[in-house]
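Dear support,

Our group has been running a series of protein-ligand predictions, and this particular one with adenosine-5'-diphosphate is the one our PI (initials K.S.) wants archived with full inputs and outputs. We had some confusion internally about which version of the output was final, so please treat the block below as the authoritative record. The input we submitted was:
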Amino acid sequence: DLRRRLHLRRRDEFGELAATFDQMLARLEAAFKRQNQFAADASHELRTPLTIINLEINQALTQSTQLQTPENYRETLERIQAENEQMTTIVNSLLLLARADTGQFTLHKEEVDLSDIALASVERLLPLAQQHQISLATGELPELLIEGDAQHLSRMLMNLVENAIKYTSGVGKHVCVELTAEKSWGIIRIQDDGPGIADNHLPYLFDRFYRVDKARTRRQGEAQPESAQPGGTGLGLSIAQWIAHSHGGEIYVQSTIGAGSLFEVRLPLIETKVPSPGAERHCI
Ligand code: ADP
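Confirmed final output from the archive:
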């Protein structure tokens, strides 16, 4: 009887071991697939600007010099420069995410006031808002102290506010940045009254290279005109999410088609705060 019991126990243990092994293999396989997809997406994103640069150079070299004015050459160079800048942005973002994946990054943490970061980001993006004819404003910006890397936090905020402006083109439209506190959390809200994002895209929005327009086009199998995507890399939100997570925080999005989007970042405060009376009054 004892032997039978032992035998059974051993079978159970083998069974458990095999199941654990299966799970580990499945996780490894999924990780490999993600890495492969990431490499494929990265190559694709870099190939587009490279192709454009090649075409521009070929055209400039093969066209008869009599047809080309110095002004034409200058315009060609400017287009090449823009593509070059796009590639630099992609490569820098990829490097940052790769370092984040392998833990090879150092956060230079210090006491940071979120209202300073929010105000500075809004000021830096005012010209972009003007260019898009958007009103960019701030709501309540109370002093909220957190332990954080000012440069990274500012990058996160810039990515979110820049998106809100970029995707909310139109006279009379608004983007608003505000801060509130909820117990031990500091909350940054970036709200716009732009086109909004459909529910089916929301679960993937923070995935690397995910872009709403591109996804729609892929599914419908149409050709995508370059101009339909406002110069995005699809990496901005992944980076913003990584920065929020690396500060012990979280990032959320709420969006309604036709009504706009609300991105919310929650970060742990150094000291618990009593919510300000105007906390529930949103700025749009
Ligand atoms: P991108 O470089 O394309 O802006 P992001 O990762 O920053 O990449 O954003 C992913 C996608 O999420 C964007 O391509 C856009 O479709 C959508 N998106 C982000 N922010 C907004 C917003 N405020 N309003 C509408 N769509 C947005």
